[in-house]
Each structure stands twice: as structure tokens, then as C-alpha cells.
Amino acid sequence: MQRFLQIFGQQKCKVIGMIHVDALPGTPGYAGNWQQTIEKAKYEAELYKRQQLDAVLIENMHDIPYVQESHLGPEIVACMTRLAQSVRSILPKQTPCGVQLLACGNKQALAVAKASQLQFIRAEGFVFGHVADEGYTDACAGELLRYRRLIDAQDVLIFTDLKKKHSSHAITSDVSLLETSHAAEFFLTDGIIITGTATGQAANPNDVAELSGKLKVPLIIGSGVTKDNIASYYKETQAVIIGSHFKKRGNWQEDIDEHNVESFMSKLCELRQT
């Protein structure tokens, strides 16, 4: 928890805004718009800077259909590094910035973070295995933390999704969320992320209650947070990751609507003053 507070500050319930970069070169949705992709990411970074978000997370969300780590090409790592450097150069030095590479590109994300001087990554499949829409995901904590040591990236925090969205967890149905969280803590995670069942879906309040106050690392809500439900998460979690709610019509595929961001941050400001 101390490392998290040193990087993110003491203020309650940090807001991490998503930058869903356009489909990257080599993926089915790529539209030949590489320079535009860079400019759009920079614009969204400026927008978040203007609205004083606590942190930013960059993700290749539009690279559907996703592939597993072994099939992620060097072009994806290269492009995400270029984008991360562009975003990092715009954000204030004290604003943490992170990256996630779908799907399960956790080592690649660490490499991008190291090269671009980012502060954290979001990792899938840290402990236990599960079946996702892109295939079977195996646990990676042992390899990932050794790789972090190998490339001298110990200052990069690793936030880990547990029982992640868009996945089946039948093979670990006998392992509770709390037990899974304790396993992740034992395997040295820097933060635990819980989500709803799909992008934009709110986390189950029972899941939040099961973990609140029982962890030694930050609890982060990774989907479905809105202006209308932030009050229910505010006192129970250390951070929230928001993507869909900031977009037009609440659709992650749309552009960010600055009014939505401003409205949410105003609501959060009210909570912080109470």
C-alpha cells in the first residue's frame, strides 16, 4: 500500500481515466491512420490533464479480436511505446500513467512502461488460470515478477485483474474471490482489480464488500463506475478505472465526452469534501 500512496498520493479514491487507442497497425480494425491515432491519444491526455484526473491508463482496446501474448507482434509493442511516450510527455510529472496490452501482454506492457517511464501496468492472469474469449490464460506472476527484475523495472507497479471480465472461471469456482486475492497478495501484486462481467458492467457490490478492509494492497474497481454509483465505491476502494462512462452515450467505442468527465469529477469533488 505504501508504494501506491507514494506514487498516487494520499487523496481518497483515485480516478484513473482510460485512453482506448485506435486499432494499431497489423490488427483487423486498423484504418491506416497511425498519425491520427497519435494525435487522438495526445488530445485525450490533454483533456484528462485539464479535468485533473489522478492517473491515466493507455490500452489497445480496439485491437479486436485479441490474441494471446505469444502472438502479439513487435509492431504492437513499438506502437504502444510511441503512444505511451506521447501521452507521458503531456501529463504532469506527478500524474501516474500506466499501460495494458491485450490480451495478456503483461511482459510487453512492462517493457513499454520501462521504455516510456510509466508508473504502472494492468495485468491479466496473475494468479490461477481461466478461459477468456481469446483462449486459455495461465497464471503468470512468477515469470512476470522475474521479468520485472530482469529489466530493472521494480519501480513499475503491477495491478492485477482477478476473476476478470469476459471470462469463465468455472475451473476456479471452488476458490473464493477473497482467497484469490490473498493468493495474489502472497504472489506480490501491487494492487487488486475487480470488475463486472463485461466492459462497462459494474462490479458486484457483494464482491466489493467481500474484499473491503481485508487486503494489504489497494482495491481498485476496473469497470462500470459512473457518476451515479461512485458514492457506493468511494469509501471502500483506493481507486477506480473509468473508460465507458467518459465516452459518448457510455459506449467504450465512442470518443470521450469532456462533459461526462467534468460531471463525474465534480461529483467526486463533492464526495471528497464531505
UniProtKB/TrEMBL annotation:
InterPro entries: BtpA (IPR005137), RibuloseP-bd_barrel (IPR011060)
The name this protein goes by in its record: CG8607
Organism in which the protein naturally occurs: Drosophila busckii
SUPFAM superfamilies listed in its UniProt record: Ribulose-phoshate binding barrel
Family the entry assigns: Belongs to the BtpA family.
